[in-house]
Amino acid sequence: MSSHRSAVRPSRPSGATTTAAAAALLMLPLAQPAAAQAQQWPAKPIRFIMPFVPGGGTDFVGRLISPRLSETLGQQVVVENRGGAGGNIGVEIAAKSDPDGYTMVLGTIGNIAVNPALYGKLAVDPLRDLTPVSQTSAVLNVLVVHPSLPVKSVKDIIALAKKNPGKLTYGSSGMGAADHLAGELFNRLVGTELVHVPYKGGGPAMADLVGGNITLSFATMVSVIPHWKSGRLRPIAFTLPERTPLFPDIPTIGESGVPGFSITNWYGVFFPAKTPRPIIDRMNAAVNAALKVPDIVERHHQAGIIPVGTTPEAFDKFIRAETARFSKLVKEAGLKVE
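Above: the chain's sequence. Below: its structure in token form.
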């Protein structure tokens, strides 16, 4: 009886496996340049877009941390002001830039979390078209008035506004910005008719308030402090949920007769979507390190700004929660910009 030995033959790969392997090989030339690009980054100056004109809080923070970022990264970080449309122009420029790590933007509560609900149509979606790097700041906004206004408290302002409906004006750094929303929330909670006057940034709004062309503002403390110290403006109350130890003598609007009032402004660094993760991580480390430098911390505090610093994941979660919150507020208040 003859025996037969079965030869063990290697199995042939299935069609699906062959296709997957071929696809992986084809992707190698694409993946390798991306990885090399991330390793070599940064090889040239980085554009840091401020989505408002000079003179406001974003400009202050951007110009404060950019020299430290330049030092850490070994390439110049160049601040570029691109104001207009409530901060949408600067955000759009950044979102449509190449995702190579050479363009970033300092986004805000307004142009990131509020404007998608406030504007009828935007060219970009911040949640889809931008990648969070780190939250840089929690910004103190304060209700401030021209000293000619005969008021010293929130209750005084409410009484005056109700006695003169449609006569008191408040300036903001743009539609959808924190100072705009604060005014809308104030009107909604107390039944006043403060008239909104939008500007292209906090600086121009402050100039008109100091000049007496508008009545009041819910402005960033950084733009208020010089005029407060010189006696050209009078701070009344913060928009925060509770008093800040930085300025313990100034009450909040909530504790001054408007329970439930709270608007906390914030800024953060963003890259265009699809920026390589190694680049995001390096910039995150550089930003967070800058926010811990004692001199930078001190200058933040002097300007009424609290440095933060987060992971990209924590910032992304925070942004999504803020977007949901303010989308509801915009809809309930019936706000819309076409």
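Confidence is low (pLDDT under 50) at residues 1-14, 16-20.
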